[in-house]
Design a protein that fits this description.
The protein is of the alpha/beta class. The chain has 2 domains: about 5-60 and about 105-135 and about 280-350, 3-Layer(bba) Sandwich (FAD/NAD(P)-binding domain), CATH 3.50.50.60; about 140-275, FAD/NAD(P)-binding domain (3-Layer(bba) Sandwich). It contains 11 helices and 24 strands. It has helices at about 5-10, 15, 40-50, 70-75, 90-95, 160-170, 190-205, 225-235, 285, 325-345, 395-419, and strands spanning about 30-35, 55-60, 65, 85-90, 100, 105-110, 115, 120-125, 125-130, 135, 175-180, 210-215, 240-245, 250-255, 260-265, 265-270, 270-275, 280, 295, 310-315, 320, 355-365, 365-375, 380-390. It has a 5-stranded parallel sheet, covered by helices on one side. A 4-stranded parallel sheet has the order 13-12-11-17. Strands 6-7-8 form a 3-stranded antiparallel sheet, with no helix packed on it. Helix 3 (about 40-50) packs parallel to helix 10, helix 3 packs across helix 11 and helix 7 runs parallel beside helix 8. It starts with a helix and ends with a helix. Bound molecules: flavin-adenine dinucleotide.
Length: about 425
């Protein structure tokens, strides 16, 4: 039985006079959130803020400073400094009363409704939010594993990996070669690898103009392809070459010691090799039995796990339907889940779920493009309703305005997440 106000009221008059009992005999309902990234930080903040102290919220996140992946390509391009994309948890604790625990969740006991921390402590919950982001599929790029990440960085989790990649690009020899091994679908941030190519090209065209970029890609096509290809031609003519699956882009292995990429039998040498492997839901979601294949299926109306009605899974870790794996999507999903959780644990009114996403990308200075859509739940999935995308050939003023819009979005969404 779930202990919430509705079930207590439904049990009759005796229950009306009895105090509510929640997880581990606690007076208030308890929500535990695993992962203080785009989805988890938003969920923790919205539940705490909108329940006005009626729900006890604990956020479990190992890092003290979260570096966003969104805008990390702009850091690689030299448009942002690392401190501009780092966010701490102080306000979530001081302004919203969230109990922030800097530790790893190492297990979820779904029967006991507890989360285990590294030190062995068990944290009880009435509802659990799981937003652990992504991990990499072992063996998806033969020759690469996590022990190679300091030689061939993925830079697909924020922070030190992003800094390493930028440092490697800055240290490239004159006329050197940057190689990206792009990921197969589905993966975090569909335009992310191609915005990265643009930002690497921007850096190199200024500091190392005879350098070259090779992208090996297992996909036939990719997000905003026409816009990126137009931009690469206009700004960086001849610098970027892409090998798709027709020419071996899906048959790739690497040798980290030799700094080579084997593309369908052809050995390519690189000075910087950025390997972005195939992705799956963060390990804790897998370990807790919340996944089917690589991702955690969720109900489209409230982001509850299809495996457990007391757990909501958010963001990149989910399979939910049409939404891309983005920070904007995770933030939007977190608000729907927060509303549903407050409805289940207090008297809060629950509104019909609506979702939105926009992904902006920067191709060169002031050359911003975007793609976005709104979504609604159907019986099967979160389904796209209406979409929009920038067009090729747009004038410079519109592209500049699109970039400025993305700056406003970043400021707004990070304060929506971290307070
Ligand atoms: C290069 C790049 C560019 C991008 N650009 C954009 C963009 O322009 N716009 C956009 O909307 N999105 C963008 N994204 C995507 C965006 O970063 C992700 O979609 C978003 O961060 C997903 O949120 P999340 O909550 O699912 O995961 P995350 O934000 O990754 O958060 C997961 C958190 O969980 C923590 N965690 C993991 N396991 C545990 C555990 N066991 N215990 C406790 N904590 C745990 C991690 O430390 C992490 O902080 C980009 C991504 C990349 C890589």
């Amino acid at each position: 039985m779930r202990f919430n106000r509705r079930t207590v009221l439904a049990t009759g008059a005796a229950a009306l006079t009895a105090p509510m009992v929640h997880a581990a005999g606690h007076g208030k309902p308890r929500v535990v959130v695993i992962g203080g990234g785009a989805g988890g930080a938003t969920a923790a903040r919205y539940i705490a803020k909108d329940s006005d102290g009626a729900i006890d919220v604990t956020l479990i996140e190992p890092t003290r400073k979260y570096y966003t992946c969104f805008f990390s390509n702009l850091y690689i391009g030299g448009f942002k400094e690392i401190d501009e994309i780092g966010h701490t948890y102080g306000k979530l604790a001081s302004d919203y009363g969230i109990n922030v625990i800097h530790d790893w969740a190492v297990g979820i006991d779904r029967d006991a409704k507890t989360v285990r921390l590294t030190g062995g402590q068990d944290i009880p919950y009435d509802r659990l939010v799981v937003s652990p982001g992504i991990d990499f599929v072992e063996g998806s790029v033969p020759g690469w594993d996590l022990s190679a990440q300091n030689t061939m960085p993925h830079a697909y989790k924020g922070g030190s990996q992003t800094q390493l990649l930028r440092a490697q690009i800055e240290a490239m020899p004159e006329g050197g070669r940057f190689i990206m091994v792009a990921p197969p679908n589905p993966y975090r941030c569909p335009p992310g690898p191609y915005e990265r190519v643009s930002m690497v090209a921007w850096q190199l065209s200024r500091n190392n103009p005879t350098a070259k970029i090779l992208v090996v890609d297992p996909k036939e096509s990719f997000s905003k392809q026409a816009l990126f290809e137009e931009g690469w031609q206009t700004h960086y003519g001849g610098m970027v070459e892409r090998i798709g699956p027709d020419f071996g882009g899906q048959n790739v292995s690497v040798d980290a010691a030799a700094m080579t990429v084997d593309v369908d039998g052809s050995i390519e040498e690189g000075d910087v090799i950025n390997v972005i492997p195939a992705m799956k839901a963060g390990q804790i979601a897998q370990d807790a039995g919340l996944t089917e294949g690589n991702w955690a299926p969720v109900n489209p109306t409230d982001m509850t796990s299809k495996m457990d009605e007391n757990i909501h899974v958010l963001g990149d870790a989910t399979s939910q339907g049409d939404m891309p794996k983005s920070g904007f999507s995770a933030n939007s999903q977190a608000k729907v889940a927060s509303n549903a959780i407050r409805g289940a644990l207090t008297d809060a009114r629950v509104f019909p779920a609506k979702y939105a996403n926009t992904c902006w990308s920067l191709i060169a200075e002031n050359d911003g493009v975007k793609v976005g859509a709104t979504y609604e739940p159907t019986d099967e999935k979160i389904a796209k309703v209406d979409g929009f995308v920038s067009q090729t050939g747009e004038d410079a003023a519109l592209r500049k305005a699109t970039y400025e819009e993305s700056e406003g979005w970043y400021a707004g969404i990070t304060s929506d997440m971290f307070g």
